[in-house]
Amino acid sequence: xxxxxxxxxxxxxxxxxxxxxxxxxxxxxxxxxxxxxxxxxxxxxxxxxxxxxxxxxxxxxxxxxxxxxxxxxxxxxxxxxxxxxxxxxxxxxxxxxxxxxxxxxxxxxxxxxxxxxxxxxxxxxxxxxx
Length: 130
Ligand SMILES: [Zn+2]
Ligand SMILES: [Zn+2]
Description:
Layout: H1 4-9, H2 17-29, E1 32-33, H3 34-44, H4 50-62, E2 66-69, E3 77-80, E4 85-90, E5 96-100, E6 121-124
Parallel strand pairs: 4-6
Antiparallel strand pairs: 1-3, 2-3, 4-5
Helix pairs in contact: 2-3, 3-4
One zinc ion is lined by residues 90, 92-93, 95, 126, 128-129.
């Protein structure tokens, strides 16, 4: 897993304690909504406003460090950008799971040479909720 500090250092963005905390929180949670993220950040930076968190998130997204995902019937979530992958969303607990999209071993996807982006969502019930 990439280090939050390196993610920022490799970008033109300034490394601020708030940005580091945002990235670390997202890394720890995998996928997180702005509201949940704000609740975490506020514990460490009580004076931070939602608008500031929002602005930082979008700056990080514009830099290609974060990715926004939009599951159906759920709030937008953010994650640290990595290889294109699919998301499984549990309809009971709302947890989001990543899954790999392997084109090489799927004969139906044999025409694909490279995936740049993926908006693949699967919905159902996770093992924990069954
Ligand atoms: Zn579940
Ligand atoms: Zn993901």
